[in-house]
Structure formats: C-alpha cells, structure tokens
Design a protein that fits this description.
single chain, eight-stranded mixed beta sheet, Rossmann fold, 10 helices
Length: about 280
Amino acid sequence: MTDQTMAGRTVLVTGASDGIGAETAKTLAAKGATVHVTGRSADKLRPIAEAVGTEPLIADFSRLDDVRRLAQELGDRVDTLDVLMNNAGGTFAPSNKTADGHEPNFQINHLAPFLLTNLLRPQLAAAGTSLVVNTSSVGNLMGKIVLDDLDYEHRRAIEFPAYGTGKLMNIVFTRGISQRWSGDGVVAVAVHPGPVGSSFGRDSWFVGLLYRSPLKRLATISVAEGAAPLIALAERGPDPEVDGRYFSRFKADGRENKHSHDQAIIDGLWERSEALVGLV
C-alpha cells in the first residue's frame, strides 16, 4: 500500500532546485502532499516541479522583491499552507553584497525566509494548525548575533562565522515564531540535517573545493539521508512537543549557541528584521 501520510496537506519547499530541498519535495509529494517548490534556477527547478505536479515558483533570495513576489504568487494559488519548509540557504562570500545591499549570508539565510514566513502568516494561520521547519546547522555554534551590526557595517565579515550566524538566526527566528504565533496555531522547529553532500556552498570557493574533492565522501552524508530529518518533521506535523526546539538530525535539543535562548536577542532580531524588510 502506498504511504499517504501527507495526504490532504499543502507544503511549500524553498531551495527545492536540488539537494535536500528537491529530495524533500519529491518524497512529500509521493506521500500524498500537494507540494509547491521554489528556487532561483528555472532550469533546475522545472523538472522538480514536474515531478511533484505543480508549476515552479522562481525566486532568488538575494532579491527581497523576489521573495515578495513569491509570497504573492503562492497566495494566489493557495488559501491555506500546512507546512512551510524554509530550506533555501548556503554559505556565501561576504563581499558579494545582495541586490538589496545586505551581507549575503545574513540576507539569504535569514532575512529572506523571515520576510517570506511573515508574508505567508495568513495562509499558515488559515490552516488551523501548521508547521514551519527552518533548516539550520551545527554551524550555529560559531555564530554571533550583534544586534547593532547585523549587516557587518562596523566589523569584518568572515565567511564561515557569517554563515554560522545566519544558521543561528534560523534557530532564534524559530523561537520568535513559537512565542509570537502560537495563537494562530503555528508551530516552528529548526533542524540540522547533517553534513549533506549536495550543492551547499556552491557560491563559496573554499567550500566548493572541499565538495569537489575526494574528502566529500569522507565528510558528508547522502542527500536522501540529509532530507530524512526534514521529511520526518513534516510528517509529524504541528506537534506542540517540537515547538521552538532545535533538532540535530532526529535528536531534539541539539548543541546550540548560547545566543539562541537569549530573550533580548530573540526579540531584538525579530524587531530589527521587521524594520529591514519593511514590515513595520
């Protein structure tokens, strides 16, 4: 008998052009969900959209106007959203500023999904109970959130710590959703999928060098293995037991940066992010 554990649920997967996003989207569709997919490459996203049976939604998270258009296009398609998989992200050279003028690890890993999730709040709330899954990383441990310098205007941005800070922000944002949107029935969880051998870091020369070398096979797990924790959380659905928690693969309460439970940082990041994306 075909596994239909996701039947009747509507899902959006970001970063679905390849890697764990594509794998997650195809698996959830096979389990009965209506899956919408978004990514920045039309050529790469098209076959994934065909596989899940919906039209592709093209958006580049280095452009916040793309994120706004994405939210509008999805809103035109669906009235309710049961699961939002915020999976888009990666590690980027800090010198390559985004179209909006932000440090790329900050915008692509945090600001863009923050904006998208807020814009999709009506659809998430309309579902009655819904789930937001934020793909984070063990790299959160090397992050540092400086509320008065989120965009590295007064300090030097170094790629891996900047990436780690973005992944730390995913956890902090998860806590913010949990605290602010419980009345809407929205549950949020962050997850480290593991060191996946996909196109992660494709815009980083150093990470790309590692991922193109024989060391990749020693240092990484398969795409299917990396997608498995995301799929498991999606199937579990908006369980209050996972709300506001960070999973290291399948294990709850993984190792976290001390900033992730600092209430001043949880509130401050939310408020400053709202201002930066024009939500206030």
